[in-house]
Amino acid sequence: xxxxxxxxxxxxxxxxxxxxxxxxxxxxxxxxxxxxxxxxxxxxxxxxxxxxxxxxxxxxxxxxxxxxxxxxxxxxxxxxxxxxxxxxxxxxxxxxxxxxxxxxxxxxxxxxxxxxxxxxxxxxxxxxxxxxxxxxxxxxxxxxxxxxxxxxxxxxxxxxxxxxxxxxxxxxxxxxxxxxxxxxxxxxxxxxxxxxxxxxxxxxxxxxxxxxxxxxxxxxxxxxxxxxxxxxxxxxxxxxxxxxxxxxxxxxxxxxxxxxxxxxxxxxxxxxxxxxxxxxxxxxxxxxxxxxxxxxxxxxxxxxxxxxxxxxxx
Length: 314
Description:
- The chain is globular, with a radius of gyration of 20 Å.
- The protein is built from eleven helices and ten strands.
- By secondary structure, the protein is of the alpha/beta class.
- Helix content is 37%, strand content 15%.
- The chain has an eight-stranded parallel β-barrel, surrounded by five helices. Strands 9-10 form a two-stranded parallel sheet.
- It folds into two domains: 9-267, TIM Barrel, CATH 3.20.20; 283-314, no CATH class.
- The longest helix has 16 residues, at 113-128.
């Protein structure tokens, strides 16, 4: 299946999600290096603040603005946090856009559905009075009844949310379920729609692609798939998969390997030699006969990433 050149926005969450990877932390200088590498790869938006550490993360926002990079900044605020007003005010003052999070699982506060909806509406109204570009995000979207998700997302859009992000928080969904869920939301919501996939079952990239085919406008990704537990949908894999399938992202594919190496160096998390797109072995062939018709053995042209195929004799 090939797309009809639909544009898909990739929002990078490396500077937020990677800090949930065991052993990973970044200095201001490291964050700047990663942000500049993302900008050079033509990533349009980077998410720099987590809902659990808004004030701490936003210290970097001012420093990044001083670099005058064209990339837009964003972050997350929990609607139910005791200091949500302070967090919203700080996000509004320092970020280009931000999203209000409301976990839709009945096992996370607030537990009552009506209370969730009422609080989200209150926080969203407060935020939109301070900033024009505010969205909402729904953790555990793939773990609850679709009807409630449709209801609360519809309420948020009615109240003025500029975008809605659907989270596969535990990474437990699959492409078929994601496509069905996004398809139902797309028919109902007239708003910019994003999907955020986790990789606990190794399906984050596949789920992201399914979400695109079902109608999302954007995807959350991280460089090298860094993130909580098994990580997130990999920017380099998603960008290449979308390109191969005929979608437009605006990502500079030739810079993906360099970006991956930068994050590998700064995070200390090694990239597998077998990693798709940027792994050391991705353009290697043990069988020399492959080079007679390389396009039959390769998913993409090596020139797209500035690479060169080679034969490894075992």
